[in-house]
Structures are given as structure tokens and as C-alpha cells.
Amino acid sequence: MLPTADHVLSYLQNRAVALARDTDFPTPDTVDPREYRRSPAASRVAELSAQSGHHHFHFERRAIQPLPEAWVPEAEPELAEPPQWADGVLPEPKYQSFRHDLPIGSYHPHHRAKWASHELCHALVGCAWNPRATHFFHATAARLAEMVPVALWYFFDEVFVQRCPLHQGDGALFKVHCQDCEAIQRARVEDARASERITEGLNFLDRELAAIARSRRLGRQIPHRWATINLASDGDAYARSHGPRLSSPLFARFAEDFFLPGGFVQPTLDDLEARVHDVVAAMLTGAPLTPQAPGPRQGRWRWMLQDLGWRLSVETLHTPALRQPLEAMIDQLAGIIPLTSQPWSPTIEESLESRWNEVLTTLWDLSAEQPALRPPHELLALGYDGPVPGLDSGWAPLTDGLETIAPLSVPLLGDDLEDVVDQFAHDDPFVRRPLIRRWADWVTGSHGPRFATVVAWEAIAGTLPARPFLPTPGPALGSEVQLTPGVVVAIFDDSALELAEAVETGAMELEEDDDGELELYSVDGSDLPAEACAFVLGRLADGDSLLLEIDPELAESLRSLGEGGLLNCTEEEQQALEDHGVIQPARTVELS
């Protein structure tokens, strides 16, 4: 049975109070802890996940393998190839990147903070599989695996959570993205709609379970729709996309070698449904939950072994000529799995590390001898730090991304590109910022100021709002104004535009200084004066971009509009700003 609304309300309210008092709950170590503490339910999911060593991989640092031809559904040929970078963004296909049988959550820097606990919730629930599974089994298993994460997203993660004044109390925002809500990201102790939202969430789970029970009696999917959500159709789509993989002999062998009884994978739909109830009770009432591994270190090892074991398994289909040595490595990894069920000790850890490093060494040696094998910097780019060194940092996927958004700094690096991006990948944090912004932050902290200025220029140009700004008729001089939405104000301490042009024409190159930092120097030895500058930029309706240089003091005034008006501005400058649509009449909202 599901818990009562009163029981859930009492538990989540008490946990919200504890979060407000900065009570330290255990969490996985990959993501900013604020994302785990944004709501009482989210923090509980993170706490339970930490007990079994669940964590996230960084989507942009994980090399995604192509789908073997035999597993590509005829109606979805687009699933055959991994997603491609475009303008510094790597899309995450719904049915290719995500797998219910992967116990490590995806972390995408362009997604909302809510995804952190949602992905961990998937890991807590797990999945169901057996070698005799039908399409109906796979579809129903996917439906059961989605229930709790979806209920968390739309209902329980919206209880006792702080939002911006505009959206406070609105609940889940669906496709609306609010940067102000993301910035607040914390629990609150008062919530007038908490009881209502908890009741709605429990009703959603109850009706979904009833629809699943009826589906199983009739042998066909009976939908339960809420808003735009239909888990019956989602489960069917998942089974169509993943059925060939899940029903393959390769997956059956992998399951036999790497899945342990009573762990992440359940053998029957009844077992998975029981796990659903257990996770709901643990998440919403504080009830204990049977962990999927004896402890966090054993769990971390187990999920990593399964992850690499599956990647090597898939590689046997891409390079059948190397099946025998690859299968030998897979057997070595599978042989370590039972150690993750034992109590933790230095002896266990040493044995795991030794045998793991042996596999990695064999893989590197095989790759050097066999060019047909996918290189280790792809096979080992798992997107997270393992318990021991040896995994690739993910420099190759990040390099692919930077080449689509950093047209100045990437060519500058020349033969040093791999090494520099490798350093960046090792330092790259799990933060919700575009790749080019993270690159600019890292270069600023790691290399010379002139090189950092060029990368900062790329970051501004590469992250302009996608939608064009819409100029409105200019105000009369002296009236109250505001910055037109979609316009970006950029201020630099150095001659950004001149530096960018010098790099583009080859007049400046990178050199390593005495401290090992990369810095820009003129090819002919001339000196470009460092002068502060400022610009307003925006995307125009015809596809072109606005680039207007302005005085730095005026730029500071534009940034502070609404906090004292437009200062340091002559009539001619204001007229120019109006003519270009940079400022517009201030809007006020009258409440009746």
C-alpha cells in the first residue's frame, strides 16, 4: 500500500526544517550538493542513493558508442549514430542515451537541477529483466521503472521547494525554464499547497499502479494519462527502441555475468513493483530501503564494472575479429563482480584495483596492436572518476564540442590541443553551464589574461540568447527605460575585439611562459595596448548579430538599469541605443 498523505506531509515538512537548519545528509559526491538539497524529497533520494554508491556521469565527457546495426529499429534509423555537437551543445536523445539497466545517472549541463535527483531515483528503483521477457514485459517494466521518478519530478520534488516570486506555488514548470528558480534552488519550511500536491502525487501513483494491474490482467497496455504524461505509451516506445538489445544473446550473457541477485535488476514484474513500493515508502516517509549494494564503495565498484563490461560487450559486435580478446577482458571484469558483495576491507580493495588495472593495461596494449579497435580514449571515456585512476578524462568528446563553438582558441592550441583539453576535462566540474562558459572560466584560472580575454569573447558570442531580441519604438529622452530582453552587455579589461581579430589573422600566437601558462604574443613583436572596452550584443531577427561598442562606464549603467536609471549617458548615446533597439520603455505592471 502507498503511504497516507498526512504521513508524507509530516515527514517532508520535518525534513524541510532540517534542511533549513543545514543538517548534513549524505549525498553522492559528483553534483553540486545544492541540487540534492533543493527539496526534502530530492535530498532523501540523494541520501538513499549514496548508501549504494549511485552517482552521475557527465554526459558531455562520456563517449557514446554507435548502436550496432542489428539493434536499430527499422522505423528509427536515426538511433544508429550517437548525437553530434552543434554550437557547443550535445543533445541527449530520449531513447538512445538513457537505459533503465544503467545504474549511473546522466548529468547534462544544459538540463535543470531537478534532473539530478530524478536520475538517481531511476537508479534506486532499478529495472526488471529475464531471458524469456516479451515486448509486453519490457514495456511494463519500463513503465514501472518510470513511475516514481516521474511522480518525484511533477509532485514530490515540488513540495517545500523555493521558487522565484513569479512561479512560487505553481508546481512543476513543464517546458518553461526559469533561470531565477534555478538560482534559488533551496528548500523552504512553509508550503500552503504541500498537502494538495502530495495528495495529487499519491493519486497519480495509485492510478498508475491500478492501470498497470489491469494491463497485466488483460495482456495489453491500459493507459493512465495525467497532463501530457502517458507512461503506457512511453513504456511501449522504450520497448520498441530497446527490445532488440534487451532480447539479444549478448545482453543475456552480460546479465548472467554482471547482474547479482537482489541487486539493481529484478527478475519479475512483481519484484519490480515491490521495489517501487519500497522506494516510495523510503522517499516519502523515511522508511529504510534495502540497498542495492552492501555499501557505497562496493556499489561504486559494481556499477563501474557493469558499465565498462557492457561497453566492451558492445564492442565485440563492432569488431568481431577481436571478439576473443575482448571477451577475455569481459570475463576478467565479471570475475571481480562477486567481490562487491563482500564486506569492505583493504584486501578486497587491493584485489579489485589490481585486477581492474590488469584489464585496463590489456585494453591499451590491444588497442596499440589492433587499429580496428575503438581507441581507449573512447571506450574508457565513461564520464566520471572511478575508484582508481585509469579511466579517460573525456577530453575527446569535449574537444569535439569545443571545435563547434571556439573557432579562435581551439586552432590556437595546435598540437597541444589534446593535452590542454585533457587538463580541462580533469578539472571540469559538474555545473549547469554551457561548455564554452566552463572553458572560459577554466582558461581564466589556468592561463594568461590575454588568452583568457579571447576565450571570454568566444564565450559571449557563443552563448547569445537563441531568440532574437525585439526592438520596440524608442522612448522620449529622459523617460524611464530598460534593457531590451535578449541583449547582452559585455565588459572587458583588455582590447577584446582587437585581440580576437589579431588571432583570426594569425598576428598573435600562443606560447608557454615561465610559469607554464599559455599566453598570447604578437608574431612580429609589436605590442597591442590593453584598453578596457565594452559591447552590447544580440541576435537580430534576420539571423545576423548586433555588435555595438560602447563606453565601459555606460555599459556598467546598462547592467544596473532598474537600480538607478541610465547614468553616464549623453543624449546622443541614448539616441543611438534607442535606434539600435538596445533599450526600450520600461514596463510596469498594474494590479487591479
How would you describe the overall organization of this protein?
There is one protein chain. With 592 residues, this protein is mostly helical. A hairpin with a 2-residue loop joins strand 4 and strand 5. The protein has a domain at 1-58 and 91-292. The protein is globular, with a radius of gyration of 27 Å. 47% of the residues lie in helices and 8% in strands. It has 22 helices and 13 strands. It has helices spanning 5-20, 33-36, 40-51, 114-125, 135-154, 179-184, 194-218, 231-246, 249-258, 269-285, 296-318, 323-336, 346-369, 376-379, 395-402, 409-413, 417-427, 435-446, 449-462, 496-505, 552-559, 571-579, and strands at 56-58, 105-107, 127-128, 225-226, 229-230, 265-266, 481-483, 488-492, 508-512, 518-522, 533-539, 545-550, 583-585.
Q: How are the SSEs ordered, and which strands pair?
A:
Blueprint (H helix, E strand, L loop, with lengths): L4 H16 L12 H4 L3 H12 L4 E3 L46 E3 L6 H12 L1 E2 L6 H20 L24 H6 L9 H25 L6 E2 L2 E2 H16 L2 H10 L6 E2 L2 H17 L10 H23 L4 H14 L9 H24 L6 H4 L15 H8 L6 H5 L3 H11 L7 H12 L2 H14 L18 E3 L4 E5 L3 H10 L2 E5 L5 E5 L10 E7 L5 E6 L1 H8 L11 H9 L3 E3 L7
Parallel strand pairs: 1-2, 3-6
Antiparallel strand pairs: 4-5, 7-13, 8-11, 9-10, 11-12
